[in-house]
Backbone:
């Protein structure tokens, strides 16, 4: 009950700040930016080094535009520092009480480890029911979360998480669990998980047994045809959101009922669209997505390039909400057909995320129906032995009939 009340209060604050006039939001963001920059420059080695190199020292921004003077941080750059330099220096127990370690690999092929503040996790958990501005009350309504990496668990009494791998290995049991639970809302960790559920939904005629109100998927974009197809299968509206709650930049934005881009979560983030030099681009111009987050004090993200590209829309959303809207243009790789079976890219990423300390990035190149080339840019710790481990993990996924060739690029000289 307390959590639900706290969630409601958090949402009211969130909504209030996001819908305030620009001058107020700018003041709020400037205050929070100063706090996170102070933490980064006083307690995080990588930022001390990077800010020092940029001649910024202990600069205090006088306005939001000053942020443009700070360097862009990439995953490769973060990996080039030893782990103790990318997180808060702390000698007390605070760090261990508040830090969660996670690994992630999105479709840009960059496995990555990060630390997240548990306080921030609680906040994103409370906002989960608000995606798409639906204001779902998880005290009374049930939601299912079909996720790539999770084990089956109840996050709360009305929020059940089921791993998408179970849907692939034993669809009948998975469907039975879903029908027994009888959710009104379904969240998907990615497009691949949603596609699998769509297939099961049609095969087991779930439209006759479930009455869904809305479906949410953590994904950058859907074509008009894809969205129409999903809506027709589920019999309800489909909302996109970015990024996944288990990722390093959770809930950066989400669609409203107009489905014309993501409303930016200004309470937690500053989003910049920048060119290759890190300079801001005007609305309508496409560039690199760089995000500054205010809430993760354990591992601050300041002007962090998520690996995706996008642009701000020039006009406010037709729904009337004040928060700016942006679109993501990155095209995530499509499904692979190997050995007569279909694999979605997220399945391959799930293997690679555990190799974050030896793989800087990877790329999958299907050659024919039975052969696939895996290009790897290794990190310093890479050794030939990992070829065998990776081969074993990927053979388990693809099956014995698929031939896997590894192409190892020139080794990068990096830590971690
Ligand atoms: Zn809108």
Residues:
């Amino acid at each position: 009950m307390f959590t639900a009340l706290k969630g409601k209060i958090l949402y009211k604050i969130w909504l209030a700040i996001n819908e305030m006039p620009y001058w107020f939001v700018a003041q709020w963001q400037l205050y929070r930016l100063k706090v996170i920059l102070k933490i980064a420059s006083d307690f995080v080695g990588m930022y001390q080094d990077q800010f020092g190199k940029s001649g910024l020292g202990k600069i205090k921004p006088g306005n939001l535009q000053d942020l443009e003077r700070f360097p862009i941080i990439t995953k490769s750059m973060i990996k080039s520092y030893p782990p103790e330099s990318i997180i808060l220096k702390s000698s007390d127990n605070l760090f261990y009480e508040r830090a969660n370690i996670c690994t992630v690999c999105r479709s840009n092929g960059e496995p990555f480890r990060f630390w997240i503040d548990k306080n921030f996790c609680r906040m994103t958990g409370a906002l989960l029911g608000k995606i798409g501005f639906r204001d779902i009350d998880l005290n009374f309504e049930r939601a299912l979360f079909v996720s790539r990496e999770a084990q089956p668990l109840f996050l709360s009494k009305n929020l059940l998480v089921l791993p998408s791998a179970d849907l692939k290995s034993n669809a009948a049991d998975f469907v039975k669990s879903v029908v027994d639970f009888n959710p009104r809302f379904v969240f998907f960790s990615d497009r691949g998980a949603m596609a699998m559920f769509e297939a099961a939904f049609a095969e087991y005629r779930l439209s006759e047994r479930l009455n869904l109100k809305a479906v949410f998927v953590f994904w950058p974009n859907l074509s008009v045809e894809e969205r129409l197809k999903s809506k027709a299968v589920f019999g309800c509206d489909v909302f996109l959101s970015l990024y996944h709650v288990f990722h390093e930049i959770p809930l950066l934005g989400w669609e409203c009922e107009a489905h014309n881009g993501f409303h930016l979560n200004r309470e937690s983030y500053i989003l910049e669209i920048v060119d290759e030099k890190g300079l801001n681009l005007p609305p309508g111009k496409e560039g690199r997505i760089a995000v500054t987050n205010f809430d993760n004090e354990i591992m601050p993200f300041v002007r962090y390039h998520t690996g995706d590209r996008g642009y701000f829309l020039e006009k406010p959303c037709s729904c009337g909400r004040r928060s700016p809207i942006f679109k993501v243009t990155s095209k995530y790789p499509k499904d692979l057909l190997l050995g007569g079976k279909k694999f979605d890219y997220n399945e391959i990423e799930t293997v690679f995320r555990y190799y974050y300390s030896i793989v800087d990035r990877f790329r999958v190149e299907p050659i024919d129906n039975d052969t696939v080339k895996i290009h790897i840019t290794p990190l310093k710790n890479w050794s030939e032995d990992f070829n065998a481990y990776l081969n074993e993990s990927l053979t388990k996924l693809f099956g014995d009939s698929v031939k896997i060739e590894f192409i190892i690029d020139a080794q990068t000289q990096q830590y971690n």
